[in-house]
Amino acid sequence: MVSPSSPTPAGPRPAKRFELLTLGDELLLGLTANGHLTFIGAELGRRGVMLARNVTITDEADDIARQFRESWAQADIIITTGGLGPTCDDRTREVIAEVLGQPLVFDPAIEAAIVDRFSKFGRKMTPNNLKQAYKFARGEVLPNANGTAPGLWVEQDGKVLCMLPGPPNELQPMFTEQVIPRLAERGLLLAHEAYMQLRTAGIGESALEAKLQPVFDRYGAALGVAFCAHQGQVDCRLSSPGGKLTLTELDAAAAECEQLLGEDFMCYGYASLAKVCGDLLRAQEKTLAVAETATGGLLASAFTDLCGASKFFAGGVVCYSNEARMSLLDCPECLLEQHGAISAECAVAMATGVAESLGADYAVAVTGFTGSCRGTQVNPVGTIFLALHAPHGVWSKELSYPGPRATVKERAVNAALDWLRRELVRSQTGHNAPPRQSGAMQ
Amino acid sequence: MVSPSSPTPAGPRPAKRFELLTLGDELLLGLTANGHLTFIGAELGRRGVMLARNVTITDEADDIARQFRESWAQADIIITTGGLGPTCDDRTREVIAEVLGQPLVFDPAIEAAIVDRFSKFGRKMTPNNLKQAYKFARGEVLPNANGTAPGLWVEQDGKVLCMLPGPPNELQPMFTEQVIPRLAERGLLLAHEAYMQLRTAGIGESALEAKLQPVFDRYGAALGVAFCAHQGQVDCRLSSPGGKLTLTELDAAAAECEQLLGEDFMCYGYASLAKVCGDLLRAQEKTLAVAETATGGLLASAFTDLCGASKFFAGGVVCYSNEARMSLLDCPECLLEQHGAISAECAVAMATGVAESLGADYAVAVTGFTGSCRGTQVNPVGTIFLALHAPHGVWSKELSYPGPRATVKERAVNAALDWLRRELVRSQTGHNAPPRQSGAMQ
Questions:
Q1: Is the pTM of this model over 0.90?
Q2: What residues of B are in contact with residue A189 (Cβ under 8 Å)?
Q3: What is the ipTM of this complex?
């Protein structure tokens, strides 16, 4: 869950009005989340544009016509998603052509692409697929590498209409590879990212602002600053609102911030904590194992979602019983009896146990109480113990988070990952934490 | 990911027009997913209402006024989310009061609730919080058990306006406990769920329809039928479109479908496969362990997300190397060398290994290739091997799914869970699969 604090993107806000029209009964019935808004909103935001509106409507022809007419009157750029497929309830193309007063014309090039796609998969094309081979008479075609329905592009009345198919794996590459460059060419969004994003971890928003204040003071109003807080992470976006700073100057300001942040600086851009840890582990040719209770597989998932995780990730254990802790992680029974499973001692035994079981250089363990199952209760508090096993020592840490279960789990995972990240940064720069025994440091 | 096929809810569609107005720059910038649409859309859908439109706009006063005016002219019921908080960018209450021509009045009862909430948490109330103590002069207050901003309810011009705070843990219980009953009292939605939902697993939509056709034929047009397909699951919703069937008759039709479905029937309602498996395990006082590679913690997560998982879930192992398979699961090295890690033999060794390590009665293992890291490539195929270890035997199964990585992972998890579910249903009814050795059956 992201709880943004100051979400307005830095950079000048273009005067043009962008609207996103998402079509589909499944969105209105809550059967599918509106991921198109999340994806397209973020992509445009990075180029200095905030959507003025997103409207979700049914697949009914009347609704589409009414809404499109209203939006076309107000907006300069309209992006639609969905309703371009081969079946009878895919009516968007026809309805909008009528509102625009443009005929649809058959395009043999689209037909060839559809036929080619079917033959590649060894399937027979049904005639209704040819419905997708029509384009606007005065419009262009956006090829779809992952599906049969191409996108459509129209410029009319000084406005732009861009229609995209609904499946995310078709829409997303079309948007970044075709739509963004076309909009940039026409000056409708910035040709490069609107801001330089410094991603930080383990520091709160106000502490971050205080730390960077010397840089902000020096640049004054020439430097635009916006913060966006996630669970345990805060992004700081630097921009040049009036265009007074060159890209080189913006880079320099960012580098000054990076310098001031020290270990709190995580990366430029959008990489996840797991990705940053993975890159550090690969660069140092080290391996990692994880052991978890409270986070129930979430920590392992954070790594296994990455491409090439097997290069550094040895594996993970999810323990839900003391038997599991003893048999898989060699946690001593007397330790579990004396301190209990939710303790710093148990976390340390789990980290060391999984590192030894899997022959990993580093290990992270999470044990704890994530609070009530129901997220709606008043202030349930999660008590979490983390342990970090490194080649030169093992440490534990206690955390206490108020909030619903899902949030506590996410914060615990992020805290564990950030601790690992800091340790890996120190080991890369030779500034390791104090070794457990003198001489053990490498 | 849900890919609904026939999402229109069964039951009569009321003539009243519902609109949802979601406010927040963070939604338009893709920083937060629009979970309110998903939640409210689904809640209304269950009561026979489909939202006519969802509009997401910025927090700007002008935008709110313009959109609210337009929506209020068209809709009969408007629900708004967000913008009710204490800070200066929370303007919704004031802007809408102006459009409605209603003054806002201070309500000492709201003030008392806010003061009480702050004192309970031992924090000092800042004066800006009193902004939340205003209600519409001719309106009501919807108390908020989990936050300071109450909801507001207005009936005017024969229409209903319901304003809710943005945080999901505040909005969701307010919606189900207060808004749904109020709307039902006024006859604006059904007093009970609009349909009887049979959830099935492991059967495709067309096969499901064919299996149930005898029931559909007998009831004819009196019975409304709609299907909604997820990854490896299909929901069948039965309703009485013209109100011709009583609830008892609808129950009887559902029971006939359940009978015809046999093991393909999973549950009534909305429970997950993991929940159904967990309930079966608890009823039979059996325990479960999981071992996974390709699904990287997703299978363990499915169980650890459940309340009370520790009652039946022993734990899980995520293996990303042969060393992990050997040390944690006792997979024989010669087996891994001969057959490889992506093989039926390895899956069986993993399932048996994790069951023995954790002393669990049942175990499920997933190993395989989930396809390319990039979801956008053409037809990457995932090859998955599953194994199921039960008290009376162990079996393996090969699956092959085309599609992007995330989809393959989800389908593999669902296939594994469904296999376990069927085995548990059989063991409950005494119809176990053939035992490995005669006499091993209990």
A1: no
A2: none
A3: 0.78
